[in-house]
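User: Reviewer 2 asked us to show a designed sequence for the structure in our supplementary figure. I'm pasting the structure tokens here. Could you produce the per-position amino acids so we can include them in the response letter?
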């Protein structure tokens, strides 16, 4: 039974680690396109959307370049569906 719990926790940790890596890559893509640096903590997923928790000025710059960012994300992460930035 302990082995089953360990395996479950290991899978859960891998999922969280994978999302952390993806958020890091998203931060790099946004910086490359907009010139603004975000922290990984300012980026989260809400369904098929990418939610930004940053100031209004940065969000505006991201929204102005939203299509280019989404296109880059689709190319970089073909298995992850990100349809919008909110």
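Assistant: Here is a per-position design you can include in the supplement:
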């Amino acid at each position: 039974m302990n082995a089953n719990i360990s395996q479950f926790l290991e899978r859960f940790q891998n999922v969280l680690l994978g999302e952390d890596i993806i958020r890091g890559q998203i931060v790099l893509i946004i910086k490359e396109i907009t010139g603004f640096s975000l922290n990984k903590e300012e980026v989260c997923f809400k369904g098929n959307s990418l939610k930004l928790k940053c100031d209004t000025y940065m969000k505006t710059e991201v929204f102005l370049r939203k299509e280019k960012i989404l296109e880059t994300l689709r190319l970089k992460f073909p298995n992850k569906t990100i349809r919008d930035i909110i």
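For the response letter, you might also mention the following. Residues 2-85 form one domain. The chain has one domain: 2-85.
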